[in-house]
Amino acid sequence: MDPLSTALKVAASGLGAQSERLRVVSENLANAQSTGDAPGAEPYRRKTITFAAELDRASGGSLVDVTAINRDPSAFPVEYSPGHEAANENGYVMMPNVNVLIEMADMTEANRSYEANLQVIKQARSLISMTIDLMRSQ
Q1: What is the pTM of this model?
Q2: Collapsing DSSP states into helix, strand and coil, what is residue 13?
């Protein structure tokens, strides 16, 4: 496989991984206030994503792959809200372990990585097109 095709394949795997990461972050943000529906019920638990490098034997390139989507085991913060439907006998409600600032930082990083991979694809396509044009002119 030629180097430009390998670059396209590597960047495409990066696009897929960052797209999945953005989906997980979006889900976390959407559920940042999702509490349980009964007293003592657990609220939404933050999801995390794990990546791994995977060697593509055909091209020799190192691709990225999503290996797992797990749940964050950290403790749930509690808030005093005695009128809430999920409040325990002391009036405390377990809130999701989602930190909006962390999720926004993850989203920004994933978005930038996605854009960088997109630029690699655009550049590789441009180089392929220029190579074809050079071959035609000879």
Answers
A1: 0.87
A2: helix
